[in-house]
Each structure stands twice: as C-alpha cells, then as structure tokens.
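Bench notes, afternoon.
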Amino acid sequence: MTAPGSLSEFLSTQHSVIRVALTRVRGSSPRNEGTEMFVAPEALWGTIGGGQLEFMAINAARDMLRDGVLHQDLDVPLGPEIGQCCGGRVEMKLTRMRASDKWAAAERATQRDEALPHVYVMGAGHVGRALANQFQHLPVRCILVDTRPEEVELCTANVETRVSAIPETDIWGAPAGSAFIVLTHDHGLDFLLTSAALERQDAAYVGMIGSATKRVKLRNWAHKHCDGQSIEHLKCPIGASGSRDKRPSVIATFVVAEVMAELTSETAATAPTGANQAPLRGHHHDRKGRSA
C-alpha cells in the first residue's frame, strides 16, 4: 500500500502509527539527525535512507504495533553486520503515536513546507515545462509564470501556475532567498525579468537561458538602461557545465542540478530533515490556478 499525498492525510487515515526518528548520528549515514519516518501496518511515509537500516526500523516498528509496545530505542552500527558500509552509527527512537503526536507531526510538516525555497520558472515553453516536471519532485515550491495562458495550459506538473500580464510583479513579490530561472519567448522580456531579479540582491539564484553572446548583450543593456547594473551573479548560459544536448528535458536536468546546488549549498547541514518526501503542495497550489 502506498502512502496518501500528504503526511496529514497519511496520519488521518492510519489508526496505528509508529514514528521512527533519528536521534543521534555519528559518522557517515544515509540521513541526518532529526529525520522522521512513519510506519503503519501496511503503509509507510518518509524514509530514513533505505537499505538494511530502514528495513530493520520498519520491522521493529511493525513488531511494536503487533505486540502493543509503546517505545523502543535502537542503536545500529552501519557496518558489515547489517550489510551496509557507511561506517557510521545511528540511534533511533520508535514511538507509538497518540492523537496529539499526529497533530504535532502534521504541524511540523506544514512548517517545513512553508519554509521551502521558492523557485520561479519565468516562461512556460518547452524548457520551462520540463523544469516544472522535475521541480515538482524536489523540496521546493515551484511557480511557473507566463503571459500566455495557452502555454501555461500545457503544463501537467504538480506545481503552482500563474498567467501574469506583468510578470515582473511576481519577481518583486517573491520571498527573499528565491531562485529565478528566466526563459521566456522574448529576449526583451528576458532582459527585463532578469534585471528585476538581479535588482533584488537577495536571490539565491538568478539564471537566464541563452548563449555567452546573449549574456554580453544583457550586460550592455543593463549598463545603459539600468544605471550600470552588474550581472556578475547571473548564471548565463544556464546548466552550462553539462551536456551540449539541446533537448528540453536534458537542458532542464542540468539546470535543476545547478539551482539545487545553490539552494542547498549553505543550508544542507541545517535544513529540516523530516519525512515530507511527497511533491510539494504550495499554499495556493492549484495545477491550473491562475493569478492576474
């Protein structure tokens, strides 16, 4: 049985659940301290890293459910004894959840979702839609923006979509630390949106699709029309360290890797590591939602 689409739904539909939490991690391990997984008799939510460690935790949790055990602590060396070679050691706390525990876990998941970085894909063409298809599976809130409703309609990804007559306003209203990927159907609009994103000076990532020549043209345009604005922190071409393959899905793969590297470079060690592994559901998510 697979888990429902959100942790809240999972917890509300499963009567008996064991919370598995990594309470201490020493050395190398698949997941960080604080990671959670939830185990029901025939369903799971989240992961503590897979492999034998996870199998042991699941079996122990289901034994607890069967035998009526409320608490259990496990201390597992990640070595040849269990068929893993990480070399670290993990301590876990397994707890049968009360109604109040389920409520608290759902609240933590909601807070993690609210804290996820925003990724604005400015342009719903072939590459923009390919980006949305990949970002929907990652721990970000992806917003696909375009002036053309017919292009936005083609998006099938589980992300927020916006038809925006003035897409600069979406950039201006974005939270600090957002990522902006600019790839519209119009080079002039690309320049305007990229300049707006750079002007904020608080973006985690600003990238514009195009060649080195396009970058030079933007630099000259910004110098002339934007009070000498610097494009030093702009990624253009985007995904340039990857392949020469021009297929949208391939371009999107390298761009997504580039963006995620920036978003996680400073926060990976301290970011929440809970169990929310499902595609992100944003506050105002509606696959075909619209905002003027």
